[in-house]
Amino acid sequence: MNALTEEEVQSGYRLLFDGKTLQGWAATKHPEGWIVQEGHLVCKGESNGYLHTPDTFENFTLQVEYRTAPKTNSGIFFRWSDLKDPVNTGLEMQILDTYHEEKTNKHSSGALYDLVAPSSNAVKPAGEWNQAIITCDRNRIQLQLNGTVVVETDIDQWAVAGKNPDGSDNKFKYAWRDRPRSGHIGLQDHGGYAEFRNIKLLQLSHE
């Protein structure tokens, strides 16, 4: 747990969480809301805020395992360019207790939050471990949840602030096509308990 396999080392993966400390992470506010316990990065869910990497990444594959308490709302942020404005400058893979949901929407677990609904409900019940894999390759975004590709999209299609490609509204004040491609990785404290582990990232190179 919280270690790279030999194959991952050879491929160039980087471990973002050592399982022992919060080294390599910083909190936007309420740092007391995040602890390391039994090899897990724990969001106590007693406040609101974000934990983020000081480093920024542009093209990458990010793996994260997580589990939550019932009804927890959280998220994995990526390409988050302005630390003072995570909501409008960070893309988010939604974490939410929606196992019993019959029809997915843009706020269901696995969604590209408020932009693309997951194609299927792949989240496990609260208390069980999930694996999220986020791949950003230039304008292409792919989200996997528990081995299922739930989102595959072209972020350049979001060319108008506050609008989705189909003309429906979203909450964002910027057009995603025009946003920086490089940004921080972040975990959200939305007042719900969550645990994270095995956080690893492979940077994708383009010649």
Low-confidence stretches: none
Number of helices: 2
Number of strands: 13
| Helix/strand order | HEEEEEEEHEEEEEE
Could you tell me the CATH topology label. Jelly Rolls
Strand content: 35-45%
How far is the first residue's CA from the last residue's CA? Answer: 33 Å
Name the CATH superfamily assignment: Exo-inulinase, domain 1
Number of structural domains = 1
Largest pleated sheet: 8 strands, antiparallel
InterPro entries: AL/BT2_dom
GO molecular function: hydrolase activity
Protein name: 3-keto-alpha-glucoside-1,2-lyase/3-keto-2-hydroxy-glucal hydratase domain-containing protein
Organism: Paenibacillus solanacearum
Describe the 3D structure.
This protein is mostly beta strands. The protein has one domain: Sandwich (Jelly Rolls), CATH 2.60.120. The protein is built from two helices and 13 strands. It has helices at about 5-10, 85-90; strands at about 15, 25, 35, 40-45, 50, 60-70, 75-80, 90-95, 130-135, 140-145, 150-155, 185-190, 195-205. Strands 1, 3, 4, 6, 9, 10, 11 and 13 form an eight-stranded antiparallel beta sheet that branches. The protein has a five-stranded antiparallel beta sheet with strand order 2-5-12-7-8. A hairpin with a 2-residue loop joins strand 10 and strand 11. The longest helix is centred in the first third of the chain and has 6 residues, at about 5-10. The mean pLDDT is about 95.
